[in-house]
Amino acid sequence: xxxxxxxxxxxxxxxxxxxxxxxxxxxxxxxxxxxxxxxxxxxxxxxxxxxxxxxxxxxxxxxxxxxxxxxxxxxxxxxxxxxxxxxxxxxxxxxxxxxxxxxxxxxxxxxxxxxxxxxxxxxxxxxxxxxxxxxxxxxxxxxxxxxxxxxxxxxxxxxxxxxxxxxxxxxxxxxxxxxxxxxxxxxxxxxxxxxxxxxxxxxxxxxxxxxxxxxxxxxxxxxxxxxxxxxxxxxxxxxxxxxxxxxxxxxxxxxxxxxxxxxxxxxxxxxxxxxxxxxxxxxxxxxxxxxxxxxxxxxxxxxxxxxxxxxxxxxxxxxxxxxxxxxxxxxxxxxxxxxxxxxxxxxxxxxxxxxxxxxxxxxxxxxxxxxxxxxxxxxxxxxxxxxxxxxxxxxxxxxxxxxxxxxxxxxxxxxxxxxxxxxxxxxxxxxxxxxxxxxxxxxxxxxxxxxxxxxxxxxxxxxxxxxxxxxxxxxxxxxxxxxxxxxxxxxxxxxxxxxxxxxxxxxxxxxxxxxxxxxxxxxxxxxxxxxxxxxxxxxxxxxxxxxxxxxxxxxxxxxxxxxxxxxxxxxxxxxxxxxxxxxxxxxxxxxxxxxxxxxxxxxxxxxxxxxxxxxxxxxxxxxxxxxxxxxxxxxxxxxxxxxxxxxxxxxxxxxxxxxxxxxxxxxxxxxxxxxxxxxxxxxxxxxxxxxxxxxxxxxxxxxxxxxxxxxxxxxxxxxxxxxxxxxxxxxxxxxxxx
Length: 738
Ligand code: ADQ
What we know:
This protein is α/β, with parallel strands linked by helices and 738 residues long. The chain has 24 helices and 29 strands.
């Protein structure tokens, strides 16, 4: 299946707009927002045009709009109240995701209320996107604040073209799984057509996580992930900078009246604990300790833009840095020399360019960093005497900037030695390293990044290669081993494609053949577990070697077990007759009631989509009033007796009666189903068996893995039919038997 992609407008969404609005004397004033995301995306939007959706930095009044003269693109503000800021931005985004994704989980501050607000604000952003969304537009969502947004946009507009870029690292599986909401976050991201990261290492961390936590099928070679019935692509797009702009700004930047006597060591960061500023100050202190001859010869300029000042972690960091700077300056300072000049504010562009240009060494030593643009800006600005870049191995930038002196920022001793080496480095080596760095950054600049990302995001969609027997061999081979198999299968949507009416559902020839093959094996037992009445599903499948559980397991019959009927069923059969009559009175063309004895289903697949929710609500309330449980199914609402018995109970009942209480020793269980009611079985079998949810990725699942459709189930059954013979079942011997 190939779908062509035409180009519409670009809709960018990020937590912050590129301007931060302040209210001063009742009037709005717009300033520039800080940080790497804005540095990257603003030039991109200026080139591309479109709409940027984000928080403007202050709550606008209903009659106020945001128009920034000469921006080159439109801006759409999303309002956040102070409480929402506290919970969504400071609480979950920066209090949980930021530290965890930077591999600093002990700094996480979990609070379930913050997660709720995170969900709500992601929905708000999605609504704003959908409002502007037209066919052929590209939605480009940015960063960890909006990880659920792709899913919410996809729900409203299933065909939208959605891309996501993460500006920070994606952590390894072992860390990511600490997050209580990890499934939701992965599902959110996978609703995109393309998920971009800075580095291949982050891509492979993400692939590990979706494979191990969601059981999704991952094609690492092609960077494709199957998520239900959709395919998301993943790839690394290392961000570059607008090289020429930094280069010319450096050439034109203000020149000092006379060259400073000391060599300048420069640090430029947002004031953030991931940037490793205290560690860097200690390394500088150690260098002064070990090399007294450097005192008075060098000077460390650290510029730190205030960031997230409401968060206590950031306030503590500020205090720590203030104290360290004071201590080091007190310890080594002289009347004619201050070892550290610490500037706690944003610096205007031309001044920053001049600082970059004139520095002898840039100390870029984050403890962890998605990419780090400061390293790249420094390199582009080195138009005069070449300086040296000291770069943390933990920054994404270090993966490509090989000619930098790469250091471990945690190793204070090592950084101090590297700093000394950088200060003493001869000109020819500095030149060779800097020119190589510059060539690469010039070639792989922001424009190239943008072209590559947009080209990939608008590529025609295609399906992944269909799931093959080899996939099942790797998922199920070791699990099943030589054991006997107990395979439980839902019917509608699992063994046969859904049709407009239950009576039209039909098992295809290939499926029928493979079911027969499985049925003939003496090491494999099949059971069909359906919401249909027992007689109905047995007639549909028509294989007398199988066990059947009808009415969601209220009635069970088949070879090897005694027939079972739940004791309360007769009572509910009588009451269900009245409920059927009641629901049949709901007047909607195409809606109808399927009577199944003690349970029933109200179907509305054939009714106009916009009426679905109202009909479902009417049915739910009639069902509840009649004393039944209402449960949503695919274009239907089911009424079930409230007797605490579901597909999960039925499966465990079959296993216990067929193989004895120690069944988990002797058989391996596989369950596949496509319906919400199969979730009960997934829950019961969690940790006890291998479970598959079939179909679209629109619903969360407890199943271990997802399968795209009925064909994938057929492939699984073919693998089962053809697998090497297992041991025949031995009936358990009770201790009292001779
Ligand atoms: P940040 O964590 O903000 O970005 P970084 O990539 O270094 O980190 O970008 C900082 C930007 O702010 C640079 O453009 C820099 O020039 C500017 N800046 C910093 N201090 C400044 C100051 N005092 N005055 C003026 N400007 C200053 C996040 C991720 C990074 C990733 C970027 C882009 O954490 O890893 O590289 O997004 O994806």
